[in-house]
Amino acid sequence: MDFDHRAKEWDSDPVKIERAKAFAENIAAHIQPGPEWKAMEFGCGTGQVSFFLKDFFYRIILVDNSQGMIEVLREKIGNQKINKMQPYLMDVFRDALPEKNLDVIYTLMTLHHIPELEKALDIFHDAIAPEGYLCIGDLVKEDGSFHNFAPDFRGHHGFSREYLKGLLEKKGFREISHEIFFEIEKKEEGKSRKYPVFNMIAQKKTAQKQ
Description:
Blueprint: H1 3-6, H2 14-31, E1 38-42, H3 48-53, E2 59-64, H4 67-80, E3 85-89, E4 102-108, H5 117-127, E5 128-139, H6 161-170, E6 173-188, E7 191-204
Parallel strand pairs: 1-2, 1-4, 2-3, 4-5
Antiparallel strand pairs: 5-7, 6-7
């Protein structure tokens, strides 16, 4: 999927804005961030989620591998003169993260695009501070119809709670919350279909909390 060419129109979709706001509200309600906390948004796009969360954190790192998205994000940050949001154009599978010991990593509608899911979770685990949080907003497992428009799609058709929970536990996290917070409605050939979106919040285990 060519996110570079879609970047300039990304924020014009009110459904995406509504989805980002709902995700941000769900995160804030469950983890109640502290004023000195550092966060990272993975697959940040134009930073929609982080703009809703910026007042909850001391600093937010925003990471994406789409140059178009990062360019739009940098322009938005500059226009609003926000110093606490720092965007990075990078591929986390090749480039080291700019910072570790993060209190929270959150990601919305990104992980289903990533075939190397276990590797991504390893990177997150390494970057999160002990007892820090990972918040995954993504599609409930579906039949593959969500990406009918993208025949070259090679990712995941959403995730079941059981599968993702098991994978997170394997990687050193424990699930603390799982909620459906949004539904995406798509219409094709006169038919309407809804795709639920969940937020799974997991906490990095410590030696005492295995």
